[in-house]
């Protein structure tokens, strides 16, 4: 072997040796990398509302995840009372900023509100998959000891209840076209829930459960009482859900089964509240009679007195438009569930009304 050959041999042997060492180091480093936390869970995605609802595609959904108590404690500054933005019947709501910069609403459920949430994680998995521009997104949840916390997208303009009943009429952003848009958007959100392969009945549609974003687009919130309607449970509902004034007459007759038509009724009441600024649990005097908001509307529509019901004198609304609005609301609050339209039909009627404006 001459000098040159042995030199080549030596260099190539040492390079192979070096390569092996580099490879070993790379392997070691890779194996030492910590497991990624909060990796997306594999889940079913509900189809987009515009797509055919029959097709349920399987895919990764990185949007809903379990968020640690440590992260939430930092985000809410130890659940500081300064950050409280709401106090619902299920617990306090905080405005918080997660470490990734996203501003969220954090709802810490009261411990005594938890009986209904025995399968909390499963429930969150279901609700976290709902995607619609008029439904408040659930971004995550936290289970820590006895605490159950929900993390929602944050909606800048608070609730419809606030704008209707806690602000003065002067310069209200709730112009007639905005109000009609809000009803159309709530209708779209409800139609989406009702149109899912396994329909979801909200059961507590009311103005405090309609949240508004910075453009006053409506998003339906609070699925605290919503239960999936599956065949086995659709006719036996053990608890009376809902809020005074929004509940359909069949509830009073003891028929508390959760139905989509009960949501349609509550939606009709919401339409009346939005046009009149009257709380549905208060009565109105008409022809020396004291009646509920729904009865009042029926009487007034019969007497062609729609304009008198408006709280703002009708600025921005045509006579035809206002009459059609109340006609739609009165369809939704029909006593007979069969006479009430479906939410899809309501969406069509309201979109037509929006086009007229
Ligand atoms: N995602 C959110 N973004 C911004 N504010 C919110 C959000 N969720 C709730 N809030 C605020 O917190 C308040 C309370 O909300 P929550 O849904 O807990 O109770 P509620 O609707 O008033 O009553 P209930 O629990 O009986 O339905 C809301 O009215 C709203 O002002
Ligand atoms: C957070 O609150 C708990 C109980 O209220 C308290 O013990 C703890 O010291 C607080 N932590 C911080 C960082 O303020
Ligand atoms: C109502 O909604 C339509 C379409 O969604 C939008 O173009 C319009 O600006 C909205 N009007 C108001 C007053 O918000
Ligand atoms: C009506 O509802 C409002 C808001 O939920 C509540 O503050 C008020 O006390 C209720 N009034 C009656 C008479 O029930």
From TrEMBL:
Domain Protein kinase: 79-353
Protein name: Kinase family protein
Cellular component terms per the entry's GO annotation: membrane
InterPro entries found in the cross-reference section: Kinase-like_dom_sf (IPR011009), LRR_Rcpt-Like_S/T_Kinase (IPR051824), Prot_kinase_dom (IPR000719), Protein_kinase_ATP_BS (IPR017441), Ser-Thr/Tyr_kinase_cat_dom (IPR001245), Ser/Thr_kinase_AS (IPR008271)
Binding residue positions for ATP: 108
PANTHER family: LEUCINE-RICH REPEAT-CONTAINING PROTEIN DDB_G0281931-RELATED, PHYTOSULFOKINE RECEPTOR 2-LIKE
Organism lineage string: Eukaryota, Viridiplantae, Streptophyta, Embryophyta, Tracheophyta
Predominant subcellular localization, coarse grouping: membrane
The organism of origin for this protein: Arabidopsis lyrata subsp. lyrata
Compartments reported by the entry: Membrane
Transmembrane segments: 6-30
This protein's UniProt keywords: ATP-binding, Kinase, Membrane, Nucleotide-binding, Serine/threonine-protein kinase, Transferase, Transmembrane, Transmembrane helix
Coiled coil: none
Any one GO MF annotation of this record: protein serine/threonine kinase activity
Membrane topology category: Single-pass type I membrane protein
Listed Pfam families: PK_Tyr_Ser-Thr (PF07714)
Family statement drawn from the similarity comment of this UniProt entry: Belongs to the protein kinase superfamily.
């Amino acid at each position: 072997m001459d000098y040159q050959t042995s030199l080549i041999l030596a260099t190539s042997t040492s390079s192979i040796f070096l390569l092996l060492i580099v490879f070993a180091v790379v392997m070691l480093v890779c194996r030492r990398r910590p497991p990624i936390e909060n990796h997306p869970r594999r889940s079913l995605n509900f189809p987009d509302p515009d797509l055919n609802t029959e097709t349920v595609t399987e895919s990764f959904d990185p949007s809903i995840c379990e968020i640690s108590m440590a992260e939430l404690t930092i985000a809410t500054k130890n659940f500081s009372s300064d950050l409280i933005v709401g106090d619902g019947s299920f617990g306090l709501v905080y405005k918080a900023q997660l470490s990734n910069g996203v501003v969220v609403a954090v709802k810490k459920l009261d411990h005594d509100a938890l009986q209904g949430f025995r399968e909390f994680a499963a429930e969150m998995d279901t609700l976290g998959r709902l995607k619609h521009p008029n439904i408040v997104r659930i971004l995550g949840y936290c289970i820590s000891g006895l605490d159950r916390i929900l993390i929602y997208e944050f909606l800048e303009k608070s609730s419809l209840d606030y704008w209707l009943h806690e602000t003065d009429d002067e310069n209200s952003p709730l112009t007639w076209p905005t109000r009609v848009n809000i009803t159309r958007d709530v209708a779209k959100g409800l139609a989406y829930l009702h149109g899912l392969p396994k329909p979801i009945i909200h059961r507590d549609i009311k103005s405090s459960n309609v949240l508004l974003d910075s453009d006053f687009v409506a998003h339906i919130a609070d699925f605290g009482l919503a239960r999936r309607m599956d065949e086995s449970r659709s006719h036996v509902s053990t608890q009376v859900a809902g809020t005074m004034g929004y509940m359909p007459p069949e509830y009073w007759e003891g028929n508390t089964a959760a139905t989509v038509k009960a949501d349609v009724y509550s939606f009709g009441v919401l339409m009346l509240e939005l046009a009149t600024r009257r709380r549905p649990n208060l009565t109105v005097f008409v022809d020396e009679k004291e009646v509920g908001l729904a009865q009042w509307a029926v009487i007034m529509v019969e007497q062609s007195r729609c304009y008198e019901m408006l709280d703002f004198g009708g600025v921005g609304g045509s006579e035809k438009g206002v009459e059609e609005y109340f006609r739609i609301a009165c369809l939704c609050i029909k006593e007979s569930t069969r006479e009430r339209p479906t939410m899809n039909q309501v969406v069509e009627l309201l979109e037509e009304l929006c086009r007229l404006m």
